[in-house]
Design a protein that fits this description.
The chain has no helices and 15 strands. The protein is mainly β. A hairpin with a 2-residue loop joins strand 11 and strand 12 (133-134). It is rod-shaped and about 120 Å long.
Amino acid sequence: LWIYSLNNGLYSGASGTNNQQNYTTGILGQGAHRFRRIYSLPSAPGCLDTSNVVLITVNDTPATPTNLLANPNPSCLSQTVNLSVTNISGNTYTWTASSVNAGLNNSTTSTTTMLPVSSGNYGVSVTASSNGCTSTPASIKILVYDTPPTPDINSITFTNPTVCNGSDGSISFS
């Protein structure tokens, strides 16, 4: 006979088929699940013995990280983008990007940065881990544009207004 205790509570008969040598649990929720087998030997009727405790600990899955922010977003090529989520003490974080071109820095904290090496639309996600369990990821899209060219001083042309305080002057960049 297999018996069961949850979180150091009293033992009672385990659910399902519990009178075999081996026992298969059903789906277990969060908590410390303890199983023991009470058995008797056919050669010694009336004599019972109890096995060692089999402990199965089921931990909570951490919540999906919240308040995932990218600043600035959108961004320009080669501009540092700061990423952050609300920190939950005791969690470690795993950051991933949709492309190696995102330039994502490796971090296990609630913040990191990326320095994109090509323009494009990047997905960045983060998962939280605690007690060996991993959350579902939070994600954000970051749009990265090519950096506009810096004007060359030699490419600037201008025309003075034809009259004082006039508005017919112009400045051109090429």
